[in-house]
């Protein structure tokens, strides 16, 4: 058999699903540029996303959103198909096997589970398709409290704090570098799936008792 | 329509699944008493939806207490699969 033969019989290679229970990820197309530009310049998100408050030219914007990017998707609602956010992997270093990830959600959809589910789908995708050891996310200090229960998990580690690194709202803020390790993530996801399966069984028993 | 569990059963189930050690009542505040951040809120949503309902996430911010959550659960439509 030729080494290029990809016929059946061997172990199946597959990419993880890009669809969750509430959102799915789809590639960015030209038709999304308006949505992405709006996210990047919105009063509520623009100052802490990508251009940090600058208003890029249309040409500069198109170039910038693809620059140094390894993968990016639009996060869409399953219920309505409307775009609700954007996930990006960038600054990939294939020698040292790490990359950065970032995510932004439409301000009028903030506070919902979409961000977490979209991020989880994207992280699965990155670890499945590249042999990264670690993914880094940079979180401005004022945002960190929102994710306290994540950063307490063993899969995540705060690996750095850049003190008074970024300037917003007339003051400097620390930026915290959070690292997510492949093994930790896979373990976390396996535990999450097992916990959810066990929970569904318990919920099923509770419902059966309520029914009876 | 999937059956709905009683308030008492709901409180026990939610406390157990979220590993909250303090006893819950209808008046327990999600933010102030349980320190539910956005990640825990998502987990809580999944825990309740596993009881066979679909919650309206747009109203997530309106649920201040465990009682609010129970009322949302009791009024929610069943999930398409009927359970969880």
Overall description:
- The complex is a heterodimer of chains A (212) and B (84).
- Chain A has 212 residues and is an alpha+beta fold.
- In chain A, 34% of the residues lie in helices and 30% in strands.
- Chain A has a seven-stranded mixed beta sheet with strand order 1-2-3-4-5-7-6, sandwiched between helices.
- Chain A is globular and about 65 Å long.
- Chain B is mainly alpha-helical and 84 residues long.
- Chain B has three helices and no strands.
- Chain B starts with 6 loop residues before the first helix and ends in a 9-residue tail after the last helix.
Q: What sort of overall outline of chain A do the alpha carbons produce when their principal axes are compared?
A: globular
pLDDT < 50 runs, ≥5 residues of chain B: none
CATH A-level architecture of the largest domain in chain A: 3-Layer(aba) Sandwich
**How many domain regions of chain A?**
2
Distance between the termini of chain B: 12 Å
Looking at CATH, the homologous superfamily of chain B is ACP-like
Provide the structure class of chain B.
mainly alpha
Distance from N terminus to C terminus of chain A (CA atoms, Å) equals 60 Å
User: What is the number of helical segments of chain B per DSSP (H or I, 4+ residues)?
Assistant: 3
Give the proportion of residues in helices of chain B: 25-40%
The quaternary state of the protein chains shown equals heterodimer
Number of strands of chain A: 7
Q: Please estimate the helix content of chain A.
A: 25-40%
Radius of gyration of chain B, whole Å: 12 Å
User: By CATH's scheme, which homologous superfamily of the largest domain in chain A applies?
Assistant: Gcn5-related N-acetyltransferase (GNAT)
Q: Judging by the overall fold, what is the CATH architecture of chain B?
A: Orthogonal Bundle
């Amino acid at each position: 058999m030729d080494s290029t033969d990809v016929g059946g019989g061997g172990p199946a290679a597959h990419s993880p699903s890009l669809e969750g229970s509430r959102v799915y990820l789809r590639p960015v197309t030209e038709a999304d540029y308006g949505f992405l530009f709006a996210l990047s310049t919105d009063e509520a998100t623009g100052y802490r996303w990508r251009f940090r408050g600058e208003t890029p030219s249309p040409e500069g914007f198109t170039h910038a959103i693809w620059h140094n990017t390894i993968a990016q998707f639009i996060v869409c609602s399953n219920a309505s198909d409307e775009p609700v956010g954007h996930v990006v992997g960038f600054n990939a270093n294939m020698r040292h096997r790490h990359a950065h990830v970032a995510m932004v959600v439409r301000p009028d959809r903030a506070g919902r589970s979409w961000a977490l589910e979209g991020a989880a789908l994207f992280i699965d995708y990155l670890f499945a398709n590249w042999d990264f050891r670690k993914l880094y996310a940079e979180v401005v200090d004022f945002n960190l409290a929102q994710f306290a229960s994540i950063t307490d998990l063993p899969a995540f580690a705060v690996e750095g704090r850049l003190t008074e690194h970024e300037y917003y709202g007339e003051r400097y803020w620390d930026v915290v570098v959070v690292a997510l390790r492949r093994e930790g993530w896979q373990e976390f996801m396996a535990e999450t799936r097992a916990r959810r399966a066990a929970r569904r069984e318990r919920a099923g028993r509770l419902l059966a008792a309520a029914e009876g | 329509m999937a059956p709905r569990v009683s308030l008492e059963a709901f409180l026990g189930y939610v406390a157990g699944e979220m590993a909250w050690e303090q006893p819950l009542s209808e008046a327990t505040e999600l933010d102030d008493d349980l320190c539910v951040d956005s990640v825990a809120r998502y987990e809580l949503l999944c825990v309740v939806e596993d009881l066979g309902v679909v919650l309206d996430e747009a109203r997530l911010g309106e649920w201040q207490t465990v009682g609010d959550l129970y009322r949302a659960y009791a009024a929610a439509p069943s999930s398409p699969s009927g359970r969880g």
